[in-house]
Structure formats: C-alpha cells, structure tokens
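Colleagues,

For the teaching module next term, I've prepared a clean inverse folding example: a structure given as tokens, and then the sequence designed for it. I'd like students to try predicting residues themselves before seeing the answer, so please don't circulate the second half yet.
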C-alpha cells in the first residue's frame, strides 16, 4: 500500500522560507506516522530532521502537528488518517530544522515551578516517605505527563504571551503542590501567582484536547488557583 506524506521543511540560516516536500512511499498496514517518517529518512531523504526515541508514547520527543493537530507520531496510526498525511512542527516553538523545534524555553518554564518535593520540616530519613492510598490518588492525572509540549503549543494564552508558564509546567506544579508531603506552595507562589502564572489561563481547554495522555491540565491549573486562594497566598 502507498501513502503520501507532505512534510514541512525548513533550515533556518539556509532556507529563506519554509516549504513542503511530498513523499509517496510504500507502507505497512500497522505503521504509525513515525514509521513512515523513519522510512523517508532511511530510504528517501536522510536530511529529514525530527526527534524520536522510545517509539512507545513514553518519552514525548516525537510530538508534532499531524493534519493540523498536535499528536505523538509514534502513536498516530496511518490508517486513522484519510488522504495525504500533512506533518508539521508544533506551533509557537522556534523551528530548529524541519520538524524539530526548540524546547528549551518550554523546559525553562518547567524549572521555574520547582518541579521537586519541597519539605523543610520532616526529619531526614533513609526510607521512603509513604502516603496513604487516598493521598497518593490525588496525584493521578498529574504524574503521567510526558512533557511532550503538545498542550502548551496548543494554548491560546501561550500564543498571546509566550512568557506564560503554560499548561504543562502548571500541571507539573500541581503534581508537587498537591502532594501531601510537599510544603513548597509559598516558595512557588511568586511564580504561580504572577502575571505569567495561573491567572493567565482562560479555560479554553485546548490543552485537554491536545494531550496525548488524556490528561486535564486545565483542572490542574484550577486546582492551583484554589490552593493559592485557600491558603490566602
Ligand atoms: S518516540 Fe517517544 S513518545 Fe514518541
């Protein structure tokens, strides 16, 4: 079976502007978009540039826009797409080359929310600090984020202001703020309660639709707002 892929190409510093290349290739029925991109790279054009690693929807590196929607290329089956498969880099991140975007500003936002447990009062221990099943359950829907960046790239508030922390960083903030062992809300409040923090979200839910792991970053952002208000920070 043959399929045609229309692939975004751009090499900053060399190309004046982006263009698209079309590749019509032989594919197998069970192939994903990533399998097709690999086939193009290995057999048709070795210069095609994109990120991938795990091929199992775990590392988050293959997020890209497929027929207008942010997806993981390694999870998106070709058979679920009718006609030409249009592959483009995620919007709003600077293109480094072809489908590969600069994720450093995304990870910089993540670092700003201090994505680690903060606890200055519990005595040091060489064992795990256990939670009850109920306490642990609060974290479901937060820890599963694979940091692919699809949600932040889909967020109109981020399009409007690139300094906005974005849904991924805020969901990760709630993973820690919502942890019963964490005491870091006030340490994180400067950034969470700032003009680039939780109040910039307009509850448009694009992030929910974009998330390949079916998470709900908007819920995480609303939960952070509740925490900040309840704790009067
Ligand atoms: S290659 Fe790891 S998520 Fe797709």
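(Answer key — instructors only)
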């Amino acid at each position: 079976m043959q399929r045609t892929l229309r692939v975004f190409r751009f090499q900053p510093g060399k190309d004046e502007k982006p263009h698209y290349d079309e590749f019509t290739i032989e594919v197998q029925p069970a192939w994903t978009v990533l399998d097709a991109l690999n086939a193009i790279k290995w057999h048709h054009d070795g210069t095609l540039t994109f990120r991938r690693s795990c091929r199992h929807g775990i590392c988050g590196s293959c997020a890209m826009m497929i027929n207008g929607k942010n997806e993981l290329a390694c999870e998106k089956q070709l058979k679920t797409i009718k006609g030409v498969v249009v592959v483009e880099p995620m919007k709003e991140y600077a293109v480094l080359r072809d489908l590969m975007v600069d994720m450093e500003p995304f990870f910089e936002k993540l670092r700003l929310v201090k994505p680690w447990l903060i606890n200055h009062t519990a005595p040091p221990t060489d064992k795990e600090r256990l939670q009850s099943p109920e306490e642990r359950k609060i974290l479901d829907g937060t820890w599963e984020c694979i940091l692919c960046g699809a949600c932040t790239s889909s967020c109109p508030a981020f399009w409007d202001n690139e300094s906005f922390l974005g849904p991924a960083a805020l969901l990760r903030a709630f993973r820690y703020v919502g942890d019963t062992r964490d005491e870091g809300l006030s340490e994180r409040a400067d950034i969470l309660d700032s003009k680039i923090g939780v109040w910039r979200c307009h509850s448009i839910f694009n992030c929910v639709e974009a998330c390949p792991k079916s998470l709900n970053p908007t819920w995480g952002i609303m939960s952070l707002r509740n925490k900040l208000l309840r704790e009067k920070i």
